[in-house]
Design brief:
By secondary structure, the protein is an all-alpha fold. The chain has 18 helices and three strands. It folds into three domains: 169 residues, Up-down Bundle (Growth Hormone, Chain: A); 102 residues, Transcription Regulator spoIIAA (2-Layer Sandwich); 200 residues, Four Helix Bundle (Hemerythrin (Met), subunit A) (Up-down Bundle), CATH 1.20.120.
């Protein structure tokens, strides 16, 4: 019987083919893994590079992009090289290029070598991304090509995960050194960590180990309390011969208007101790983490920081307050100075309520919520005083601007007016909210008494009508939203404004919605129905 030309390969041949396919799949996997590590390793290294390498932000951006640049460059001619050299030789070159990049990166001491090492990594990734899929397509059988491509892509992603895990490992190593409290050891380890993977960060300074820090740095101790132990923050650096700048704060964070009294004491004490201990600079800081902060609100404290930094010894707060309006706004009347003092007094009255919240948090809290009722009980006794000082500040500002339309820094004056109106609204909100709670409770109690019919109608009208208290609060938030937008646009581009004023929109809608509910309750009453329970109108129980 003749041999069948289409007979199956011998078993040994089948085993050999299977082994070869498995080898090719391994090649696919290693190639994808290498490419993934190429792409992902910078994520873990970048924070430590930033703190220890001395590179600028633009240089770090170039270092991050260098891998992609190298990949773009090598991909352009990877196909030509694969045809000229062959697939296997180019894969070997890719691996050698990646291997060569590692010591170049690990031993680099500046931008040039680090950039070159990252560029080589990118070139190796570009070669891999072309030649490995090409090699697999040509060598794998039709039944295994999809599997090979899938393994390449899966291990590419896995390589990115491996890079992230390496970064996490070194972050734990750095944290372990940080817990030892040895700043010098931490700095040394961080400087090595980014070279090992390449990465690092720096922790809080320990006074006992400051002496081991590099002498060519500038230490910037910071603290924002009114009565901090400022010399304790500065002395370790001064004794170690390290130049220092001090960083007091404006106390504007999460405030409707900066807490100037706290800021003045903080700036005065920190800069005084800094001068005494040889500090060569001062950075008065502002923080706008909540997204609502406006720079024109900050001038009163910031200018005091500048004055204190330039004048020797302790700067007099009272003298500064006496001269601020004339020097900054060209206001000889003293009304700007008095308005600032009224704002400080309003802030002090609010701080004295001990709510545990910053003024911006008090501004936004719903007074009828459970938490708002707790805050309301604390703020209500001080509300008349808060409002009196805030409204006097508004009057003084208007008088100053009316008598002298050419006052300098009008943006700062508009921001002062905004701060005063927000402080006034805090007191107004809690007063009106409590009056509505009490008024509705009286209306419910007297709704079936014909002798009290007119009184009940008046109580309900006071809560919600054309000029009811719900509408007053709606209008107040709406007016302040408009003023806030004007002050914002005076110093910022408009693109983020709506993301900030959405909180005003929500407050406006909340009081409009509540006013509508009371109107519906009144219609039911006129139709002979009982007034609904307070809870259905968002009202809490009456408090005393």
């Amino acid at each position: 019987m003749a041999n069948d030309a289409t007979s199956l390969p011998a078993p040994d041949a089948l085993v050999s083919i299977q082994r070869y396919n498995a080898f090719l799949l391994l090649v696919a996997g290693l190639g994808g893994l290498l490419y993934g590590i190429d792409v992902g390793i910078i994520g873990g290294a970048l924070p430590y590079l930033e703190t220890t390498s001395g590179l600028t932000s633009s240089q770090l951006s170039v270092i991050v992009a260098a891998v992609l640049l190298g990949s773009v460059f090598s991909t352009l001619f990877a196909g030509l090289l694969a045809d000229w050299m062959g697939r296997k030789p180019l894969m070997i070159v890719s691996g050698l290029t990646f291997t060569l990049s590692i010591p170049i990166i690990a031993l680099s001491q500046g931008f040039g070598p680090l950039f070159f090492g990252r560029l080589l990594q990118g070139m190796s990734g570009g070669f891999i991304g072309v030649v490995v899929p090409l090699y697999l397509a040509e060598c794998l059988s039709a039944s295994n090509r999809g599997k090979g491509t899938a393994i390449f892509q899966w291990l590419l992603t896995f390589g990115i995960v491996v890079a992230a895990l390496v970064g996490m490992y070194y972050s734990y190593r750095v944290a372990a050194v940080q817990r030892l409290g040895d700043a010098a050891a931490l700095l040394r380890f961080e400087g090595q960590a980014w070279r090992n993977i390449f990465w690092v960060d720096i922790g809080d300074q320990n006074p006992d180990s400051v002496s081991a820090l590099p002498k060519d740095m500038i230490a910037v101790p910071w603290g924002y309390g009114a009565h901090e132990n400022f010399d304790k923050m500065i002395e370790p650096f001064a004794k170690a011969g390290i130049e220092t700048w001090v960083a007091p704060g404006d106390s504007n964070w999460n405030e409707v208007f900066p807490a100037a009294k706290n800021a003045f004491w903080n700036i005065q004490g920190f800069i005084r101790e800094g001068q005494k201990l040889g500090s060569t600079g001062a950075l008065t800081t502002v923080w706008n983490d909540d997204g609502e902060g406006l720079f024109n609100l900050d001038w009163y404290s910031l200018m005091f920081g500048a004055v204190a930094a330039w004048q020797p010894g302790e700067t007099s707060i009272a003298t500064y307050q006496q001269n601020y309006g004339q020097d900054f706004n060209l206001d000889p009347s003293g009304k700007i100075n008095d308005a600032e003092k009224e704002l400080m007094a309003a802030h002090d009255a609010l701080d004295g309520t001990n709510t545990g919240l910053n003024s911006d948090q008090v501004f936004w809290i719903d007074p009828w919520s459970p938490a708002g009722q707790i805050i309301s009980a604390k703020v209500l006794p001080a509300a008349p005083e808060i409002r009196a000082h805030a409204e006097q500040a508004i009057i003084l500002l208007e008088q100053a601007r009316y008598s002298n339309p050419e006052l300098r820094e009008p943006g700062a004056l508009e921001a002062m007016d905004l701060g005063a109106r927000r402080l006034d609204l805090i007191g107004m909100k809690f007063e009106m909210s409590q009056e509505m709670i009490s008024g509705y409770a009286q209306a419910v109690a007297g709704q079936h008494d014909k002798a009290q019919r007119e009184k009940v109608d008046n109580l309900l009208d006071e809560i919600s009508s054309m000029n009811g208290q719900c509408q007053d609060l709606r209008d107040a938030y709406s007016a302040i939203k408009g003023e806030y937008g004007q002050v914002w646009l005076g110093e910022n581009r408009p693109y983020w404004l709506n993301n900030v004023t959405v909180r005003y929109d929500l407050a406006i809608q909340m009081w409009q919605r509540r006013g509508d509910r009371f109107q519906q309750a009144m219609l039911l009453r006129w139709d002979g129905k009982d007034l609904p329970a307070p809870a259905s109108l968002d009202l809490p129980g009456e408090t005393h």
